[in-house]
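Readers of this paper often ask what the protein records in our data store actually look like. Such a record has a labelled line for the sequence and another for the backbone structure tokens. The tokens are whole numbers drawn from a learned vocabulary of local backbone shapes. We quote a single record here, exactly as it is kept in our systems:
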Amino acid sequence: MAALRKCSWAVLVLTNLAVFATATDENLLFNPLKSKDLNDFVSPPFVRVVYFFKGELPLQQPDRFLLNFKQASDILEDYGVKTATLHCKNEAMNEYCSRKHSVAESVFIFRGGNLLLEIQLASMFNIDAIVSNILQMVMLGEVPIVSDEEKLQQIMDMNKGKQDVLYSYQRAVGTLEHRVFMEVAFVYSNQYAFALSTSTEVARLISSTDVRHPTIWYLQCKSVSPMDASTKSCPVLRYTGPINLETFSKYMKLISMPNVLDFQESMLTKSEFDDLQVHRAYIFTDAASYKSTQALTAELGSHFIGSMVFLIVNVNKLPTYVVKQLGYGSQVTEVPSAAFRSYGSNNLEYMSVKFTETNIRNFLKHVLDTFNEETMDERLYTDNHPIFEVPPQEIQDDPVAEDAYLIRNKKFNTTSIPALTDKTFPAMLSEKNLFLVMFYVQWDPRTQVFMEHYAEAGRMLEHMTSDNTSPLARVNCADWPDVCEKNDVIRYPTFILFKNHKRMSEYQDRLDTMTVVKFVSLHLQQNPVTLTTKAEVTQFLEGGMASTGMYVLVLGLFKEKDTEELKAFATVASDLRHRFMFGIMKGGSLAEGTAQYFGTGLSSVVIIKEQDKDEGFTVLKDDLTQGNIAKFIEESSLPVFPALEPENFVALRSLKKPFVILFFSVDNSKVEVRKVMTEMAKSRQFNDFVLCYMEVGMNSNSMGSFILHSYIDEPSLPTIVTVNHDNGKLYNYPMGNDFSKQSISKWLQGISSGKAGLQTGELKDGKWKPLLPAYDFLAMIDSEEAEYRKEVEESMGGGRIPSRSGGTAPKPIPMPTSEPGTPPQPSIHTEL
């Protein structure tokens, strides 16, 4: 900055605008490389990952990727993967930095000096996605992706007689469950074969039931002889525990250990299975029947592997006090016999029927079923015996609840969002000048899914406060309903901002980490701010979080006499201060010099959009009324030619204009059309439309590909589609490969004027109906009623019984009479 102060003010502003785009992003770079060191870094025969930073990121939230990438790198290092970043700012001659297409849109994976793959940032949306995608590349040979039945059969045939296979269905690569599977595969790939598929069709080849969620199967191929032509498939067991790292790792330890052992005296107090939370089956035998019992137990062990261990209790070899403690002589009077003990319990449940293979299988299945029903703790069964089937109506139409279920066992740090009580809430209100409180109930799915992101926002905000503590907190309304009632909480979750020891406003924006950070940080600083010195202007343009692109800056440039315009601007700033950073300059050479740089004069409003690489700023200089200023900010704060994404769809749709969507692939040679449409958007010639784009990646399941195919059955790239969401009309670009500005303009003018023959289709009927019929509660009541009547009638010998909901009175039941001189007979009770 010392050098900048020596420059003229115009140069100062120009330099600020050039550098504030990368100031904070650069601070997030880690393990920095120079071009001269790149070859040495990627040449070892191990996986190396490099991100080439070009000063900006093609994302709505640029720092989010870099933060995730840095945290993921710490995890990947445990698996021998090293990561680095290379800043292209001073490395323009680097082979990758000099590429024509945006090298910053991908992460590059190397091994032995060779480029293995480029993964687009769109696939690296969080830490789980980064870790799992990269581990998949590291272990592509060890964990192949199965695409058809032939490939699956090859994997089974290859491992018959050698090793067992862990095979998984994943809804997509890059999910939490995929990461768990890959991390476990990395540890156990020397003992087992691993494979996965993202196709439900392939998954159905293994499963006898429909597969809707990530699932893992244990294929016991080692026990199958490769010479046995009659056995095509390997025996299949389904892992039905939660797919998290802790539980699945314990399961892998269990199947890697012998699960049939001779009981030892020492096992009364301590065994190697205590830490694995595993059930135990005790098989009682004597010396005479030991061999036959051992053979049967081995078969049982194979059938129940992963869910319990089998301990053979030889009553002739163990001390008397040991077998007595296990119930021999009291509960067990003859051998062979069996008992079961669930983990966490000191009580044994004994089999009371004859000891046969069928009976013991049924006994163990029954006690496991009972345990799982009571604890809802899923364990391993064969695929033909699912433990608990959730009715499809329960999960058909709520993806948030489904995500909440999938992460139900995930643990995360909540120290940045302290839980408040009826005592600590008023204490914090009196102590803190500003804090945001999340009022919630634990059973709410949105709360469950967002809580981790809320905690992450708290950690990010800690360094922005004067005392380096998080300005976020939470109140569980199930525990402290009085606190929630006093704050008028009527829905969950509710977010209330308290400032200067009183309620200020509700947060009603997206449940997203960076959006919460933006909201709170805007309130942590003065906003709007009056700028009177060069230093204050410099700080406004490049200081704090503004440099990350998190904020859109709104600068009001006024003459001293612009009282009405200034009043209108101040009102809009007060209304929108939770979304934008506002600055005000009034009169003088400083304001005039700033206005001159932006190509305008005083009595203007300038929107500065650091993250919009196509249009850094835009100006409003006519008719500065409150309504015009607010409308200008709402429309012009968006990127001039944005990527259409879930994060900005609501904002773009709120403009109530048809979308003109360019679909293209970064690998397509005709991406020049993107430049053409960018210039058209900047010209404001087609303000009646929202011009935007979507990338269509190689993955046919990508969002861009899915949306494009809903418009066009067999599209070619690039192409343009105009969508009018209000009337449902679709217009596919008809000019073939002619993507000139003149042709596109003529087409849009025709659509705008209602020219006949341009419409090519309509959006599908947008009724959001359930996929399945709802529960028929009346039929369920009738069914229960029929069962009830049948049971009672059978117990009464066929007497007519009324319905519980009313109806005919019951027939009187004849009561026996007492003969004279005989004692009265007891009453016959017919309680129903």
Notes: DSSP finds 27 helices and 29 strands in the chain. Residues 1-25, 58-62, 376-389, 801-832 have pLDDT under 50 and may be disordered.
